[in-house]
Amino acid sequence: MRRYGPAALLLLTGGAVLRITLFGDLYLRYVQPALRPYLIVSGAALMLLGLTTGLTTAAHHDGHGHGHGHGHGVGGPRVAWLLTLPALALLLFPPPALGSYSAGRDAAQRAAQGVGAFPALPAGNPVELTLGEFSSRAMYDSGRSLKGRTVRMTGFVTHGDDGTWYLTRLQVSCCAADAGTGKVEIRGTAADGPWPADTWLTVTGTWHPKGRLGTDAAWPPVLDATSAKQVKQPADPYEKR
């Protein structure tokens, strides 16, 4: 069976890619939605290549007997079979989205942008914002567009060393490999948990000004919460940055 190793590996990998893209939203744990068509094409190509490799190997074997049985024969080196493990894991047990552990390892890095006026927020309260949108306005908006507005955001819980807790969201440009962290400190008895780490919440509240705009003292921004409701993890757990 070793001679069919390359074909099996291609089929497993292609099947895993198609499984997470065609039959659900699992691919959103790893990449942005815009990359889905490319993943589908890649998975299909791997499956086709695997079938072609298997048929070619079978034809070669039927035409030339059993071969020599060395460790580096038609099937390649035995160590190549180790590559089936990540493919099987993705096919059978897809890893979860990144969570509080990854957020805790990420440094407090903000986009390099200057202080300036932001567009007006939509009318009505509460205003639905991503954590990235809220953070940018809280830290850099000279027009103070968040003042007097009620906002609502969704993220997962992370904890600080001093008893504080944060609403957190991982932000990606392309895929989970380039994820950065956006977080908002939550204050107010209305949002008291205690909420375990990685609990997904929708939190409503008002901006609490902190520090001088555009400085490290303004990070992380603060929300005085009036309510916090536990929710399911969104199909797409990441924000686009």
Automatic annotation (TrEMBL):
Region ranges (Disordered) = 218-241
Would the keyword Membrane be found if you checked this record's keyword annotation?
yes
Domain of life of the organism in this record? Bacteria
Domain DUF1980: where?
138-238
Transmembrane region(s)? 39-58, 79-98
Q: Which InterPro entries match?
A: DUF1980, DUF1980_C, UPF0703_membrane_permease
Q: Which keywords belong to this entry? A: Membrane, Transmembrane, Transmembrane helix
Against NCBIfam families, the record matches this protein to: TIGR03943 family putative permease subunit
PANTHER family assigned: UPF0703 PROTEIN YCGQ
Name by which UniProt lists this protein? TIGR03943 family protein
The organism encoding this protein is: Streptomyces coacervatus
